[in-house]
Every structure is written in structure tokens, then in C-alpha cells.
Amino acid sequence: MSQMLKGNGNMLQEALRFHQTGNLTEASIIYNRILEKEPDNVDANSLLGTLNLQTGNFDVACIFLQRALVLKPDNAIAYNNLGSAFQASGRLEEAIGKYNQAIALKPDYDEAYYNLGNALQAMGRYDEAVANYKRAIVHKPDDSDTHSNLGNALRKSGKPDEAIISYEKAITLKPHNAELHCNRGAALQGLNRLDDAIISYKQAIALKPALAMAHNNLGTLLEKQHKLDESIECYNRAIRHKHDYAEAYKNLGSALHGSGRYDEAISSHEKAILLKPDYPEAYYNLGNTLNELDKLSEALTSYRQSIKLKPDYAEAYNNLGYALLENGMVYDAASCFSRAIEIEPDYADAHLNRSLTLLLTENFKEGWQEYEWRLLINEHSSGTDLQPMWDGKPLNGKSILIHTEQGFGDIIQFVRYLPMVKSEGGHVILECEQSLHRLLKNGDGIDGIIEKASTRKPISGIDFYVPLLSLPRIFDTTMGSIPSDTHYIPVDPVLKESWRIRLEDNKDVKIGIVWAGNRRHKNDHNRSCSLADFSKLSGIPGISLYSLQKGPASIENNNSAEGMNIINLENDLHDFADTAAAITNLDIVISVDTAVAHLTGAIGKPVWTLLPFAPDWRWLLKRTDSPWYPTMRLFRQTQRNDWDDVLEQVKIELIKSTETCISTHIEQSEKTYQMHYH
User: Fold this and answer.
1) Which helix H or strand E contains 678, and what residues bound it?
2) Which of 481, 501, 524 is the last residue of a domain?
3) Helices marked H in 480-549 — which ranges?
4) Considering the entire predicted model, what is its pTM?
């Protein structure tokens, strides 16, 4: 018996030498021979288990390591290795138990603490992972990998400043490790220290030019800085170094989308999905690009697949809702916005979008409340940090600044509330763009006008501030209490008379037209059309068309369809006061959803407003009139992007009215206008 043991001991030493030198096949053969002769050999079971762990045979490793522990329950190394085998098999809870047993047997076991930290981090238990990495460092302070993984756990737990300290310690120990520099860059990026992050990513790339992750991360940073061309180059380099890099394809798609290269973006998103079919973010981004191309049906499919893969994806629910809203499915959209809010209660975009569905469906009470969430979104936030905000209480002689956070049309529509503010006993100052000053300077309820500032600073002598579009909420506006005076913005009588003299010789019915809004408006591609769409109206006898169009779209006046004979007023319309005076001497204005439509309604002239299939909230649903403007008629698309049908409706109405109805309507409207004016 003793001779057999001696022989097995020699064999074990021989196997161990093979094991340590990397000749795992020979080591395995000898370990198995030993176990044939001596099944209960603790060392052979333990070492064969470790070998199988190293070669990826995790289930086999577990068998031998568990057998070793039955034979010797106080074997801390075996517990640690068994934990590693469980972890590699995805059995994280069991792995954590074995690491803890190893530590209980050997409290200074740095490797077990390190492995335990890794398992906890894999489960998202970052604080516990941090604690165990720190214990490992106490026992082995100069292990770069432990400092690195501690940094990863700290970064994932929202402590990028502490993560940087760990990464820098790891870099001190391994200064040429490119991955460490890359991770440090990610932590710096998390702190918005973008210049420092760029340096770290570039250091990583210098050390390891083929490090795809560094190229990808540098791309995300550059994209955040709106350096889209540079970010696209980075993503492409990442992909060249790692052909199956799904994340880089997804990010490339995002940057291409931002650059307006939508077809390429779709290809990139689809490649990401091909590489990673369960990639919800890629489906989400694909949906965004398809939506931008007005491929709503396909966008809806992508958003739904994204949600299927990630049921708590608030952003996907929000954008799905917006696509449904664009498709005219208002109530389905509202449900999506509500679901996004359930997932993320402080999701400002979802609250704002939900408010649009509420206002669109005439639920003003709840809609105005939700609409206040716009003030937390950058595009609406100018001035919202000023205090104190007015809450609607009597002003008692104090001054109040009405600051305008949206477009010209919104200002024109909602200055109707300023007499109500004035009635609360205050001194009312309106801020707005210079182009509105002459128009509004004599408006009811306005004591003064100041230029809208590009940056918001408190103004001396102002006691209260309020955003203009918060006034409907403050005054509890309902469908029945909309301030809807037919003429609430006065027109300069001198300007009006000069335009009367200019236009009086034309005895035709004079129709002002506007076909395009501000291109910077996010929905302008839907609400605007082209001058060519108005060609249907040019051949109607007894009608003259006057272009009130301003901005880049006015160039279409130079290339109008043959025979349109449009009189272009653009060069004489220097601001909204000029435009208002010109409109008073026209018989009717036909406009898409622009500031001119609002202006025409605000001065009490007839206006026919052309609406896209998915209208802005203020036009409500299905109505042909507007509670905001008594002189307005609404003409709606019945299909997306079909302006032809809308203009055909307008043409029919004009023809019906050419000889009698329009003349009568115009005469009555003018009398009403003059009565109100004088």
C-alpha cells in the first residue's frame, strides 16, 4: 500500500509539472490514471477539476471539484475554483456561495474576494462588488486587475470620480495596458470631462491601434459634441478592427442619422440587428430613422420589437407613441406615453407628448398641467429658471415679465391672455423678437416690450416672471372659456392705409398665400407644402394671388408654375406689422400652419388654414373651425402628405364662392372688421 502511494505521489508530481508548463493533455491523462488507482485522491480530483475549468469543461470541473470537497471539506482553493466553474456556467448565486465558503476558510484569500467581486458585478450588485474588490486589495494591494475591476464596478454604480482613482492606480501598475486607458476615458466621459476623455481614448489607441472599443467610445464622445463626421470615422475604424461589433454598427447608424444620411443609417442599424438579433437599442434607433423617412408602418414595427425585447424601455414607448400620433392614432399614442411615464415617472418628453394628446382631444384641464413639463426640456427651457414664477395671484402694482419660449405663431396666439394678466393689477412687460415689436407695441394689456435675450438673466425692476404658454393653465382655460375676440391685435392705421392705396386698383378677389413655415420647426416637413401645390388656385377667374411668403421658401416665387401670375409682396414685408397691414387689404388668406395664419386670425380677417394629417394640438380633431379664431376655416389632409386633396377642397370652395358667396362673405367680414376696429 505504501509503495502504491509513493508511486501515485510521483505521478502526481509529474502531472503537476505538465499542468504548470501548459501541457494539459498529458496532465489530464496522468490525473485520470491516478484516479483509476485511487479514486479518493484529493489532490488529483482537485487538480483535474481545475484543469477542466481551464479548458472550459465547466460541468466536468464541477464534478471533480465537488468530489475533492467531499473528501476534504476545508479546501479553500477547491471552493474558490468550484465557484469559478459555477460562474463560468452562469450559475452565479451558487458561485457566490462557494466564494464565501472559501473566504470563511481563508479570510485573507485575495483571489476569492476578487472572484466574488466579479460574480456580484455580473449580477448588477455593484456596491457589494466594490466592497469585495476593496477587501482583495487589502490583501494584495498591487494587483492591477483588481483595481481595474473596482473601477468598472464604481463606474457602473454611478461613481465615476472614484472609478477614475481606481483606473489611475491600475494604470500606474500597468501603464501600457490600453484597456485601462479606455476605461478611464469612459469614466471621464461620464463626468463630462470630455477633453480629458479624448486624451485617454487616444492614449489607448496609441498603445493598441486595433482596440475597437476605444475607437467606438471615442466616436460616442465626438457624436455627443456634434462632430458627426469624426464620430463616423471612429465607428468605421472600430468596425474594421472588429467586424462583428454590433454596438459600433448601432452607434454608426445613430451618427449617420444625425448627418441626414438616412439610407446608410438604416443599413447600419440592420447590420447591428443581424449581428445581435436581441438588440433592443438597435431596433429603437432603426425605428427613429424610419420615422424620419416617414416610413411610419415600418417604424412602428421596429419600436414594438424593441419593446418586446426590453419591456421597460421608456424611450421606445415614447417614440412609438409619437409615431402613432403622427399616424393619427391619438388614443393609442396616449397609452404609450402613459406607459413610458409609468416606467420613468420623471420622463419630461413623455409627459409633454401626453399633454399634446390631452389638448388635442379637448381635455384642457389635465392637458395644461402636463404641458408644464415642456419647461424641463432644453428647447423650451429658456427663462424657466427665473424666480419668482407668477402663480396667478393678484399683482397689486408689481411688475411681471412675460417671456416667450416658442415660435412667432405661439406668441401671436397667446398674447390674447395679456389683458387678463393686466387685470390682476400688474405692470406687464412682454419680451419678444424685434420683428414683433411694431405689431404688439400698442396691444391691449402690454405696458412695455423688450428684446428677447439670447441668454437669460434676471432683469432689474421685475417682480415676477411667467412663460407665455403657461397662461392658459394659470387662467384655467376650458373649451368654453378660450379668449376668442375676433380682433385682439390692432393694426397700424397708417400702414393699413398705405397698403389700401397700393392694392385698391385691383378689383379681383385678393387672396394672400403662404405655403411654408420655419424650416427649423421639427414638424415643418409635414406642415409645409410647396408653391406648386397652390397652382390649382391660379386659374380661377376673378382671383389674384398675393405671396406673403417669407424665408428660404420664398425663392419659389421665382420659379412658379407657368401661368400662376403671383404678386410677390415679400420685399415690402419687413416685419409682422407690415404683414398685418397688407392682410387687412386682402380679402382672404390661405396658409399652411404658420405664424401668418395666426396673425390673420388675430386681426379678424378670414383665413383658411391647411393642416397636415396629424395636426398640431391647437387645431383639435376633425373640426372645420377653430375656437381660437372665429374667422378661421380648417382644411385637413385625409391622407398623410396629400396636399393635392386639400388644395382641391380649397379650389372647390373658392369656385363656389367666386361670383356671390365670397363677395358676400368678404363684405360682411369687412364690416365686422371695421366695426371692431373703429
Assistant:
1) none
2) 481
3) 493-503, 524-527
4) 0.84
